[in-house]
Specification:
Shape: globular
Strand content: 35-45%
CATH topology of one domain: Methylamine Dehydrogenase, Chain H
CATH superfamily of one domain: YVTN repeat-like/Quinoprotein amine dehydrogenase
Distance between the termini: 36 Å
């Protein structure tokens, strides 16, 4: 793989001293090669550590990057450089990693195959769980504070196991149809297959440099990865994560696009891809381990997708943040236009039965509202005013309540509880004043639910789903998403897919 030109200019010549100061771009590059390249790659594409490119660092502010260089990162192999590098050098390194490389990075078949790791090939581990638990009522809790995942028993609400993850998991883990295996996707392109029976990594491969998410086919045989960089979809065999095909994401004019997300559509036996830079949605069907793409053109760019339970309709959020489109999946035609001001987070939408009709509800990124839409008429039947813009909304078929957080703004420590039959907010909780409270997930029965306190000194809070009373707090390091095996593999109506 080619290195950026600057990486070849100067890689030696600076004497180590108690504190090294870089005064030129070449000296900064030399410091990077000396202290960072062994973990993050000489071309900043990543290695043992994550990729250090602007797109991969979207979640990390520059001041946080400087702090990480100075102080290291707890529970990782990132060391502290406060005694080695001056404050000026740390600032220079932080500036460097937020700059695009001199040459566009390449990540194709050669690089993907070379990244493939196979510690436990399919069929080599015992096919019985190594511990006692209801395997369908397990939760995986992603702890983004120190890049770990906790496996939680949904009956006892006690941790079963905790293991390290790749940097910055994104898009939610996906389960195999039988619930035994879970697949993680990281922001810097790594896909990890993990065996929940044996608590072991089965296989890993790096699908791209900057990846949005992954999806597993309904039959469990294939996995598709959605990349921002390069502009590709990548198809794998799910057994050992063997590469099957790289799909360039282009329109007929040869214009390429980032992929915002990919979804499995079980009733259709296909995948659906949302494109960032081309006004199209793609349906991908896999036949004989090869992808066949069907394109659905739209009159605007769509950033987020939601589907009705039968996957007959796709609902997409328009880039202008003012409306959404409903697309008939069979014809590919737009059949309705939804007034949804404030950029709805459709990927977090849920559905339920209301007065004989199926409705969907979604929070909004930019306005203090939850929109409730009749899925027969495609009309907004109610807009609930919330304490701020929200990110996640969750419920369960067996619960009368839907929960929505207030992720953005001054009231980010509050969570609303909505009665699904009156369509009213009936309770507002503030479980940890001053700390973000977000992302609910129910157990398989809809009797209990988990809520995250997104803080380094955070927790997962267990609530009784009927009484709305808190039952316990489980300390965790900035827990974000929580994913119940039963709900995910059965596409429970109250959780995201």
């Amino acid at each position: 793989m080619q290195q950026p030109l600057k990486a070849l200019i100067l890689t030696t010549g600076l004497l180590l001293s108690p504190q090294i100061t870089a005064s030129t771009d070449a000296q900064t590059e030399a410091l990077y090669q000396e202290h960072c390249a062994s973990c993050h790659g000489s071309d900043r594409l990543g290695g043992m550590g994550p990729a250090l490119l602007p797109e991969n660092l979207a979640r990390l502010k520059k001041d946080q990057a400087k702090k990480a260089i100075l102080e290291g990162r707890a529970a990782t192999q990132m060391p502290a450089f406060s005694s080695t590098l001056s404050a000026e050098s740390v600032s220079a390194l932080a500036e460097l990693i937020y700059q695009p490389p001199a040459t566009e990075p390449v990540w194709g078949r050669t690089e993907i195959i070379a990244s493939h790791l196979l510690p436990h090939p399919a069929g080599t581990l015992p096919d019985k769980p190594a511990y006692d638990a209801d395997m369908m009522n397990l939760f995986l809790v992603v702890e983004i504070g120190d890049h770990h995942v906790t496996l939680l028993d949904g009956d006892s609400m006690l941790p079963v196991h905790r293991f390290a993850s790749r940097y910055a998991l994104h898009g939610g883990p996906k389960y195999s149809p039988d619930g035994r295996f879970v697949y993680f996707g990281s922001r810097d392109g790594w896909i990890t297959k993990y065996d929940l029976y044996n608590l072991e990594v089965v296989a890993e491969v790096r699908a791209g440099i900057n990846m949005r998410n992954i999806a597993v086919s309904a039959d469990g045989h294939h996995l598709l990865a959605a990349n921002y960089l390069p502009h590709t979809l990548v198809l794998f065999d799910s057994d050992n994560l063997d590469l099957l095909e790289i799909i360039p994401v282009e329109n007929d004019a040869g214009e390429s696009s980032r992929v915002s997300a990919v979804y499995a559509a079980p009733p259709r036996g296909s995948f659906i891809a949302a494109l960032k830079d081309i006004p199209e949605a793609w349906e991908i069907t896999v036949e004989n381990n090869r992808a066949r793409v069907r394109r659905m053109e739209t009159d605007t760019w769509l950033d987020d997708f939601f589907f009705d339970p039968g996957y007959e309709h796709l609902i997409g959020a328009a880039r202008d943040g003012k409306h959404g489109l409903v697309i008939d999946m069979d014809t590919g035609k737009t059949i309705a236009n939804l007034p949804l001001p404030g950029m709805p987070h459709l990927g977090s939408g849920i559905t339920w039965d209301y007065q004989g009709s199926r409705v969907m509800a979604t929070p909004h990124f930019r306005t203090n509202a939850v929109s409730i839409i009749d899925m027969n008429t495609w009309k907004v039947i109610k807009t609930l005013e919330t304490a701020g813009p929200g990110f996640f909304m969750r419920s369960h078929e067996n619960s009368r309540y839907a929960w929505v957080d207030v992720f953005f703004g001054p009231n980010k420590d509050k969570v609303h509880v909505i009665d699904k039959q009156t369509l009213e907010i009936v309770k507002t909780l503030q479980p940890a004043p001053g700390k973000v409270a977000a992302h609910v997930e129910f157990d398989r029965y809809g009797k209990k639910l988990l809520l995250s306190i997104w803080d380094e000194d955070g927790a997962v809070i267990v609530y009784n789903a009927d009484t709305l009373e808190e039952e316990k707090r489980i300390p965790m390091t900035k827990p974000s998403g929580k994913y119940n095996v039963w709900n995910k593999i059965n596409y429970e109506e109250g959780t995201s897919h």
